[in-house]
Design a protein that fits this description.
Elements (H helix, E strand, L loop, with lengths): L3 E7 L7 H12 L4 E5 L20 H12 L2 E5 L9 H10 L12 E8 L6 H14 L2 E11 L12 H16 L3
Parallel strand pairs: 1-2, 1-3, 3-4, 4-5
This protein binds flavin mononucleotide (FMN).
Flavin mononucleotide (FMN) binds next to helix 1.
Length: 180
């Protein structure tokens, strides 16, 4: 049977992003039969503009929608910015929400995880990402979650923390199990 394909969308563009590292860990730790691909192009998307959302949409938009169409599920890995969703991620949600009613992630399972330095681990951003994606079309899996505070990582790469690595592997497995 073909692998279950999970598209990982990262809400930080920073080269040393903890959230990108978590997404990479998800790719490394994915159970057998599951392939996680970390998407690279969110920073290339223009701000959502209905005037651009035509048959001639920008290449970065076409690429994102094609990657989403290829995927069986999506894993969002994001920090929190000022108590909410980073703009780059919200912009991606808006592009993926169109065409209205038939976006490329429609009805596909989607889970939200991430790390933030605050004591609550970015839970506000994670809740709002679930809310927004829930309106945008995917089937948000509320029960699959992980919000890691800075203290959980201790400045080390998440792959060096066995507990975090196991939690991320568990998330990927549970998300993949939602693919019908
Ligand atoms: C603009 C900005 C706003 C931030 N706001 C929050 C916040 O509301 N809550 C929080 O826990 N951390 C906040 N932080 C700290 C981030 O959690 C921290 O920079 C984290 O490492 C960002 O994720 P990344 O490593 O994946 O880039 C903020 C950081 C930036 C740059």
């Amino acid at each position: 049977m073909a692998d279950i394909k999970v598209l990982a969308l990262v809400g930080s563009l920073r080269a040393a992003s903890i959230n990108r590292q978590l997404a990479e860990l998800a790719a490394e730790a994915a159970p057998e039969g599951v392939t996680v691909t970390v998407y690279d192009g969110l920073g290339d998307l223009p701000f959502y503009n209905e005037d651009l959302d035509t048959e001639d949409a920008p290449a970065a938009v076409v690429a994102l929608r094609a990657a989403a169409a290829e995927a069986d599920a999506a894993l969002v890995v994001t920090p929190e910015y000022n108590g909410s969703i980073p703009g780059v991620l919200k912009n991606a949600i808006d592009w993926l929400s169109r065409p209205y009613g038939s976006g490329a992630l429609k009805d596909k399972p989607l889970a939200v995880i991430g790390a933030a330095l605050g004591q609550y681990g970015g839970v506000w951003a994670h809740d709002e990402t679930r809310k927004s994606f829930g309106i945008a079309g995917p089937r948000v899996i509320e029960s699959v979650k992980l919000s890691l505070p800075g203290t959980a990582l201790d400045g080390k790469h998440p792959r060096e923390n066995a507990e975090v690595a196991a939690a991320v592997r568990d998330v990927v497995g549970k998300l993949a199990a939602e693919v019908s």
